[in-house]
Amino acid sequence: MQTVTTTRRRAILAAAAALCLAAAWRSSTRAAVTPGRWYKGNLHTHTLNSDGDSTPNEVATWYREHGYNFLVLTDHNHLTEIAGLNAVHASKEQFLLIQGEEVTDSWQRLPIHINALDLAKELQPQHGDSVSATIQNNVDAILAAKALPSVNHPNFGWAVTADDLLRIQNLSLMEVFNGHPTVNNVGGGGSQSLDEMWDVLLSAGRPIHGIAVDDAHHFKRIGREFSNPGRGWVQVRAESLTPAAIRAAIQQGQFYASSGVKLADIQISADEYKIAVDPQATEKFTTYFIGDGGKVLAKVFGEAPAYRFEGGEKYVRARVESSFGASAWTQPVFRQ
What are the sequence ranges of the domains in the chain? Predict the structure, then answer.
C-alpha cells in the first residue's frame, strides 16, 4: 500500500509539474514586449558550509559589492540559512539572497549534482540505479519540496550525457556555462559541449532554459586554476526583486545567461528575434541564431543583431560572442 501511494503521489506531482512547465513555456514564447527591469544574479555559489573558502557573510559581501542584485547560496547537501544574511545585506530593489542547495549525488562514482533553487528545507540525495534515474529521483524530490531544479555542469567528470537528460521529466533548467575550471563546458574527445547538449534537448522538443553560473568556491585565491566568482551569471527581467518574482521570470525564460557579454534588451515578436548588445570599450560581436539540430540559421555582426523568422523553424535561440572571449546565451523560442 505504501508503494502504491508513493507511486500515485509521484505521478500526480509529475503531471502537475508538467502542466506548469508547459504553461510557463508557452508564456515565454509568446511575449513580444516584456515589462520589468533587469536583475543580475548568480544561481550557484559555495561557502565554508561545504567546500568554499569563505564564510556566507564574506560571500554575500562580494556579490553585493560587485553589482549583483541577487545570490543563491548552494552548498553541497547543506541548506545555508539566509535570514540573518538578508537582515544585513538585503535592500529593496537592490540586493537579495535566495535560499538553495546543491543536492550532491553520484552513480558508480560519476558526480551528479542538481541545484535546488528557492528551497525551504534541506534535502538529502535520493540515489538511483543509473545516471538518469539518479537525476530523476533528485529532480522529483526538489519539485516535491516546491523548489526549482537545475542540472549542474553535465560534463563534470563526464558524468551526464544528452541521452541521459532526454530521459528526465519535468526539468526546465540546465547549466550551459559553469565558471569552474574543470567542468569541460566545451566538451572534447568526442563528448558534446553543453551548447550541443542543449540543442539535442531542444530539438527533441524539451523546454529547457540555459543558465550560466560561476560555481564560485574560491574568494581568497585568484587564478585560472581556481573557481573564482564573477565568471558566469544570469540577467533576469522580472517585475520586482523578490524570490517569487525572480523565480517566475526564470521559469518563463525571461532572462539571458552570460560569461561576460552584456545585453541591453531582447525583444521577440511574431516576425522577429531582436537583440541589443551593450558594448564595453572596443568590444565587437558576432551573433549566431541557432535552430533545430544546432543548425546556424544566421550569423550577424554588430551590436543590434536580429533574425527574421522565415517559417518552418522549430525553435530559435541566440549565442552572442564577444571579441573579448565571453558569450551570452538567450533563451529559445519555439515556433512549432
Answer: 2-259, 263-336
For the stretch 56-89, pLDDT in tens is 999 999 999 999 999 999 999 999 999 999 999 9
- Name the DSSP letter for residue 223: S
Q: Which residue has the cell 573557481?
A: 227
pLDDT tens digits for range 138-187: 999 999 999 999 999 999 999 999 999 999 999 999 999 999 999 999 99
Query: Is CATH 1.20.1070 correct for 263-336?
Result: no
If one looks up domain 2-259 in CATH, what number appears? 3.20.20.140
Question: What grid cell was written down for 69?
Answer: 542584485
- Cα–Cα distances in angstroms (integers) from residue 275 to residues 30, 153, 228, in the given order: 16, 27, 29
d(CA 214, CA 177): 8
What Å distances lie between residue 92 and 12, 64, 69, CA to CA?
37, 13, 10
CB-CB contact of 134 with 126 (8 Å):
yes
Helix (H) or strand (E) holding 288: strand 285-290
